[in-house]
Design goal:
28 helices, alpha+beta, seven-stranded mixed sheet, Alpha-Beta Plaits, elongated
């Protein structure tokens, strides 16, 4: 039976001569054209075309129309895999192939930020990704991708597996180009020794010209093939009317080759083919090592997604791809297997290794009703879970997305470095021109090569790498510690903190609030009153509500409203019942003044019952407060609890100030009343902390806290260990130090090398080595951030 071409559907008459691996399976093509197009589709990360296409490609036009226009990505079924939605805004992380420096990132941001419907775009040159938000009513994802494509870059939705393929393809391309440049450099250098050091003293002019032609033959593939990425990047910049790092590089290469070619053809003057080959080789070597270093820096977040298994086993024994799981699906997880999706345990008791999320190595006990997260590992028991979220909405996907956004959010120092680098390129070109004009009058034979040295030696690659390389390494290392950055300024602000403001319940304390005792003030059964209290508290997500969760709520309580930070109000038997703080629940608070009970239940303002709650202090709270006090940072408890418990916690921990019994508005007002020189770090977990978390200079939300608190914070502590905040501060201080070192080195190198090059003291090959070494030093210094944050 004749097999049909997987790409176009035509009969295959060539046997299995033309094959492409698609979806981990070998597919047969009918001709080299279909094979080449299919291979390009796979290499570009567009394999989803084959998954969702409705017909095979037209033989008259091998590249499908939907791929040419990227319209495939506008399909709702396709977007489910990588697009997240919030408030009628779509968000996507794109992988962009072809970014070589910060100028590329700036160019993409500049061109797309003005496009209609694009709300926000941030590009990270280190991990070669872009975070894009757009209004689907005004523009389409295909239009955004087309705009990036027109700039000369390849963009596709980020997928960890495809990213691995792209990285290996880039590595292979660099190695090929490096190999050509390296072999040619060795050959041309040997010829250069013969030409310039007169090894053969009796060499006649004909033989000298012959060696020049041989050098030309070796140098030409280097210029046309190995150096091609530099020309492509330079052309992108020129076409967009801006200047990137590769503009002076390309000018230097083309000028040097053209001048040497002219000297060879005319048989007079000097040739520097060895400089062309060596310059290209060292520059490619530097870029390749930067690629490897970037890979190391961003691998942590990208590898998180790889922890999700490929396949999931349903309760009925059937298997399906884990990414296809939908809310409501029931999955069985055996001991040692990774959890394939976020869900809730419906059967089984086990321990779960959550270290990949929280950085804490001790497994957590989990049983029926507890939540489990994709990528975590089931240690010992058989589990059945009900899936609660799609893969793209899972906690692990959200972590990767927020890490990418944090890396793309540039602090002021990074933006300043980018601006300096762009203006510096203009300065380089002007100084090079002036250098050439001056030396043309003084030493015409050396003018061109002195100008070339200026162009090469002062390329500001290291300056543009100084900040993003450090920030990317720091963000990745914090992710391993269980600290998730949501906003890029966090690392910049954390070392400046001189005031710690922290919530009590669920933050300094464990949040495992227990009902210790109660007191009844009317003649009614305690069980009935507890059930009313439980019914009211069931409408709150505050940790206090958990203390009443074991009591069956009264089903007749209705019309419950939650006054955040104060309490709850509802109707029962045509009367208004309240539970909460005494000044909220009681019309007469005199009774509460002689009681240590924190929570009061009232009917029509009259005291019905009061409850005393206990909440143990976290072990890590002691270390956190002690460390901040040793650094002369003032500490304050800011809590809505009006009882004496806040004062007790403050005394236990040695906290300087206590501000208790305040509403969410009151918390924000307290923050706004701080002295102008105070830089406050706010730590909280509840809904009532959201306003002050959003308003603080810097804020941290507990991972187990409310969603609105986490959405308002600058950082999220994925576990419950407050000492991780100390690790984050140590890391931030180290980041600041390393960024300063990087900038000092990059600027210092250029300040020193520029006058030396202008004066003619720097040969082209020395300039090449110095420029490459400068970039590598910056990257190597940044990689130190992947080590212990307390190391110097």
């Amino acid at each position: 039976m004749t097999e049909n071409c997987y790409h176009c559907g035509e009969p295959v008459l060539t046997g299995d001569s033309y094959q492409v691996e698609i979806f981990n399976d070998i597919k047969t093509m009918c001709c080299p054209g279909c094979q080449a197009v299919a291979a390009t589709i796979v290499a570009s990360g567009l394999t989803s075309y084959y998954q969702y296409r409705t017909a095979t490609a037209d033989k008259s036009d091998l590249v499908p129309e939907e791929l040419q226009s990227f319209s495939l990505y506008d399909n709702d079924d396709v977007q489910k895999d990588f697009v997240s939605q919030r408030d009628n805004v779509n968000d996507v992380i794109l992988s962009i192939d072809g970014i070589s420096c910060a100028a590329c990132a700036w160019l993409i941001e500049k061109k797309l930020s003005g496009q209609k419907g694009v709300i926000r775009i941030q590009v990270n040159s280190t991990n070669q990704r872009a975070s894009v938000s757009w209004d689907p009513n005004q523009t389409k994802l295909s239009k955004i991708l087309s705009s990036i494509h027109r700039l000369g870059y390849q963009a596709a939705p980020f997928e960890a597996d495809n990213q691995e393929i792209i990285y290996h393809r880039q590595t292979k391309q660099y190695l090929y180009r490096l190999g050509v440049a390296g072999l040619a450099t060795m050959q041309v250098m040997m010829l250069a020794f013969a030409l310039y050091f007169e090894i053969f003293s009796d060499m006649d002019e004909a033989f000298r010209n012959y060696l020049r032609w041989v050098s030309l033959i070796f140098a030409t593939p280097v210029l046309l093939y190995s150096a091609l990425p530099f020309y492509i990047n330079a052309w992108r910049s020129v076409k967009a009317r801006t200047l990137g790092m590769d503009v002076p590089v390309s000018i230097a290469l083309l000028f040097a080759y053209s001048a040497s070619l002219y000297a060879t053809v005319q048989e007079k003057g000097e040739v520097f083919f060895e400089s062309v080959a060596m310059f290209t080789f060292f520059l490619l070597l530097g870029r390749f090592l930067e690629l490897r270093a970037r890979r190391t820096a961003v691998a942590a977040s990208a590898n998180l997604l790889k922890l999700i298994p490929k396949l999931a086993t349903l309760i009925d024994g059937s298997q399906l791809p884990a990414k296809s799981l939908q809310p409501g699906d029931k999955v069985r997880i055996l001991p040692g297997e990774a959890v394939p999706a976020d869900g809730v345990i419906i059967s089984g008791i086990t321990q779960i290794d959550e270290s990949m999320l929280t950085g804490e190595s001790i497994p957590k006990n989990r049983s029926v009703g507890d939540s489990v997260f994709a990528g975590t590992v089931n240690i010992e028991g058989n589990l059945d879970i009900e899936v609660s979220k799609r893969r793209q909405d899972s906690l692990i996907s959200e972590i990767v997305r927020l890490q990418d956004e944090a890396q793309m959010t540039k602090p002021r120092i990074a933006e300043l470095a980018d601006v300096i680098a762009r203006y510096f390129i203009v300065t380089i070109l002007l100084v090079s021109l002036c250098t050439w004009l001056y030396w043309t009058q003084q030493q015409p034979d050396d003018a061109f090569w002195i100008m070339l040295s200026v162009l090469v030696a002062t390329c500001p690659c290291a300056l543009s790498l100084a900040t993003p390389a450090a920030l990317t390494c720091a963000t990745s290392s914090l992710g391993k510690l269980g600290i998730l950055l949501r906003r890029g300024h966090a690392l910049e602000t954390l070392p400046k903190v001189n005031r710690l403001i922290i919530d009590k319940t669920g933050t300094l304390t464990e949040g495992n609030i227990e009902l210790q005792c109660h007191e009844i003030y009317i003649d009614k059964p305690p069980a009935e009153l507890l059930s009313i209290a439980s019914a009211l508290e069931s409408f709150s997500s505050h940790p206090i509500a958990a203390a009443f969760a074991e009591v069956t709520p009264n089903p007749n309580v209705s019309d419950v409203s939650n006054d955040i930070g104060c309490g709850l109000t509802g109707r029962y038997q045509n009367q208004t019942w309240k539970i909460g703080k005494p000044d909220y629940a009681l019309s007469d608070t005199s009774l509460s003044e002689v009681s240590k009970h924190q929570v009061w239940l009232s009917c029509e303002g009259n005291a019905i019952a009061s409850f005393h709650l206990s909440d143990p202090i976290r072990d890590s709270s002691f270390a956190l407060i002690q460390s901040f006090k040793e650094q002369n940072i003032e500490t304050t408890i800011l809590t809505g609890d009006s009882s004496q418990h806040a004062m007790h916690v403050a005394e236990e921990l040695g906290i300087d100030n206590v501000v208790s019994g305040v509403t969410p508005k009151g918390k924000l007002e307290y923050l706004n009343e701080l002295a102008p020189h105070d830089v406050a770090l706010m730590v909280g977990d509840g809904v009532n902390d959201a306003p002050v978390l959003a308003g603080a200079h810097l804020s941290v939300a507990m991972g187990g806290g409310s969603d609105i608190a986490k959405a308002s914070a600058d950082m999220i502590l994925l576990g419950d260990d407050l000492q991780r905040i100390l690790d984050a501060r140590a890391r931030a201080i180290k980041v600041r130090r390393i960024i300063r070192q990087n900038l000092a080195w990059a600027l210092g190198y250029n300040i020193i090398i520029l006058p030396l090059a202008v004066l003619g003291f720097v040969a082209p090959y020395v300039a090449v080595a110095g420029m490459s070494a400068s970039s590598l030093i910056v990257v190597a210094n940044s990689l130190r951030l992947l080590k212990d944050p307390y190391e110097k």
